[in-house]
Amino acid sequence: MSNFNLESNRQRRSGSIRERLGERREDRERLMDKVVFINRCAKVVKGGRRFGFAALVVVGDEAGRVGVGLGKAKETPDAVKKAVEQAKKNLKSYPLAGHTIPHDVLGASDGGLVMLRPAAPGTGIVAGGGVRLVLEVLGVTDVLSKSMGSNNPFAMVGATLDALGKLRSYSSVMALRYGDAKKE
């Protein structure tokens, strides 16, 4: 009887951990991350300078979800890793209209101001810096943008997310205007 239990335990343990527990959600989603900016900071001490790094990273699934994270560490790879982990926790969904945005929108954050406009298929992403990276990981392929005010990467990414947060899909606007009672 004990031999039988021993055999069944071996059979249960023979599979990999992934097979037993199933794949994690992040592994199935295939998230894409891009580093927007890495800042080096120096602290002057008795023996010289001590450097620290801060990384600003955007993460998205190229299907309407994007998140931003900031990580700080003594080494660059550690800072990027922390930023990616934080960005994954901050993922939010935004409405898209195909491969562009549904309507014109203006977003502001700190000193940054970003205007986004939908574009015809084949236009591409006409944007620079942090705005382009946010839109790429979001899954937008055709959009026009204009950045006004500060060109600080933190302000530009924040303003882009503010603009995306103001987007409304056609169906949500119709539901607000006419309610769910409209049946034609």
- CATH level 1 name of the domain at 95-173: Alpha Beta
Q: What letter string, H or E per element, gives the SSE order?
A: HHHEEEHEEEEHEHH
Q: Return the average pLDDT rounded to an integer.
A: 86
Rounded Rg = 23 Å
Sum up the overall morphology in one term. Answer: elongated
By DSSP (H or I, 4+ residues per run), the number of helices equals: 7
Q: Could you give a short account of the major beta sheet? A: 4 strands, antiparallel
Which helices and strands appear, and what pairs or packs with what?
Elements: H1 2-13, H2 17-21, H3 25-29, E1 32-45, E2 48-60, E3 65-73, H4 76-89, E4 92-93, E5 105-109, E6 112-118, E7 125-126, H5 129-138, E8 143-149, H6 153-165, H7 170-178
